[in-house]
Amino acid sequence: MNMHHLRENPFIAILRGLQPTQAVSVGNLLYEAGLRVIEVPLNRPNAFESIRLLKEELPSDCLIGAGTVISHQQLDQLIEMGIKLAISPNTNEALIKKSCEQNMIAMPGFMSPTEAYIAYRNGARMMKLFPAASLGVNHLKAVLSILPEDVDVIAVGGIDPLNAKSWLDAGATGLGIGNSLFTQGDSYQESKAKILAFNEAISGKR
Q: How far is CA 35 from CA 38, 65, 113, 181, in A?
């Protein structure tokens, strides 16, 4: 499944620790900067409430998803909320199948070709290479050379403005960026400066 939201801007904002009080302002800032995919990891307090606010308040062409989805209980809550993107740090066959059955975009994490093919066999067409920095761009190139053509790979982990373009040049469909883009407690100006740095880093790439 190709995520059309990444065509104009390849970044997925990973807002770990995003609190409900700042969710809408941060979400609007990201949207104004051109980002159309936002992920709130579930391994921090108040994540579901922040996700709910983002889904309700941001424009409909912005895809709101959850990260660190590791249990059926979490996935069931996301389904009930109408969330269409479930991102996991690992390759969990049951969660991939269930997400696909619910017409969600399942984005499991993988490191090896074996994990990638397990995810593919269970329906995933969008996968997260994680942790990307530990593996390197050559690992991504090698994996892409043997994966089916309908697989899109998102590089996540250690992405910053200095290396973002190299990951895209290596074949990544998109880039998940966390602490380099958002840290809990960032001011509006700090967040804006980080977003601009990423957009400038890939200017001319897409």
A: 8, 13, 29, 12
pLDDT tens digit sequence for 176-204: 999 899 888 888 888 889 999 999 998 85
Domain range enclosing 184: 6-201
pLDDT of residue 185: 80
Look up the CATH number of the domain holding residue 144. Answer: 3.20.20.70
> Are the C-beta atoms of residues 177 and 159 closer than 8 Å to each other?
yes
Cα 40 to the center of its chain, rounded Å: 9
- Residue 206: inside a domain: no
Residue 1 in any domain: the answer is: no
How many residues in total does the chain contain? 206
Q: Which of 46, 103, 96, 85 is nearest to 176 (CA)?
A: 85
Each residue of 23-67: pLDDT tens digit?
A: 999 999 999 999 999 999 999 999 999 999 999 999 999 999 999
109: three-class secondary structure by DSSP: strand
Give residue 115's pLDDT. 98
* Choice among 55, 98, 128, 194 that is catalytic: 128
Residue closest to 176 by CA, chosen among 72, 102, 83, 89 = 89
Residue 22 lies in a domain: yes
Beta strands 126-129 and 109-110 are: parallel
Indicate the pTM of the whole model: 0.94
39, 55, 98, 194: the active-site residue: 39
39 is catalytic: yes
